[in-house]
């Protein structure tokens, strides 16, 4: 069998039959349902909500959670789903990631049995959309400094404050909101339509345009006392959710990187320059070889993290290393492909510029590149340089 450019070390050649079927199913879904309209959707800033229930039918939402209508897949299978969704667009993977690893996982890990039975089956089916409210206008990399405050008043909690850069916010039916209380940071369920709760969309984005992003505003927002996530006991629980999502990013961005490499290969083999294919030039082959090598390394990182996570041995700093490394690989591949394609690289007819713009956001969301390097640095030295 020939060596695959996007899997040069055959890291993904030993998938079992179910994992292969999952990969092929998601690829088909993305190709037939998402890609035909992505250029227009990206330009218009439109997310295709009509695909959400189809994703639910395919078991793509909350896929690595067990019970409550979720598919209960292994961690490699979850990673494959994220990878194939992001091969289509980072915005599509971001939707599934927030729904699954942030909103659903928060309820799954910290919610009451009643909350899990009520929300998770509907969220797995795509009938209820979730978002995750942690980041605030003044507190991004330091979420523990949040100002949003929840106060217990009789049979209700009253929340005041704001969150920003929240994926899915404008279309969400339920928000997982983290707020200070008299007893520390806790998680809350705030449902769409709650008095004093609004979710305005953020416009004029130049990245993740085929994704809905907004803010969460709380003006004496009253929610029932039962809507607290009782098992939450501090910022560490929010960070546990983020680690679930960051793990998915480790796989997801490789889909974008592979798509860019394939585009570069196809383009350079067909593009004639000085009477011969562009692919015949040494500089081009060097760039292609570097991209293939870095993707191969990223594949090994992703699979090793999946094995650690499946065996419940994974550590947050290891996820940080993987997220930082693989996002950098993907962004470099997108930039290199854009460079190789020249002026054509900025056209929506091709995919690399869209991937590149999206990955600029992935590079800094759910922990910036620098913060993840400092997390690894802390693990190495025992010193928290970001405090």
TrEMBL record:
Keywords from the named record: FAD, Flavoprotein, Oxidoreductase, Transit peptide
Domain Acyl-CoA dehydrogenase/oxidase N-terminal: 17-127
Annotated ranges, domain Acyl-CoA oxidase/dehydrogenase middle: 131-221
Gene Ontology molecular function: fatty-acyl-CoA binding; flavin adenine dinucleotide binding; glutaryl-CoA dehydrogenase activity
Cofactor: FAD
Transmembrane region(s): none
BP-aspect Gene Ontology terms: fatty acid beta-oxidation using acyl-CoA dehydrogenase; fatty-acyl-CoA biosynthetic process
UniProt cross-references to InterPro entries, sorted A to Z: Acyl-CoA_Oxase/DH_mid-dom (IPR006091), Acyl-CoA_Oxase/DH_mid-dom_sf (IPR046373), AcylCo_DH-like_C (IPR036250), AcylCo_DH/oxidase_C (IPR009075), AcylCoA_DH/ox_N (IPR013786), AcylCoA_DH/ox_N_sf (IPR037069), AcylCoA_DH/oxidase_NM_dom_sf (IPR009100), Glutaryl-CoA_DH_mitochondrial (IPR052033)
Start and end residues of each Acyl-CoA dehydrogenase/oxidase C-terminal domain: 234-380
Family: Belongs to the acyl-CoA dehydrogenase family.
Protein name, entry field: Acyl-CoA dehydrogenase
Species name: Fluviispira multicolorata
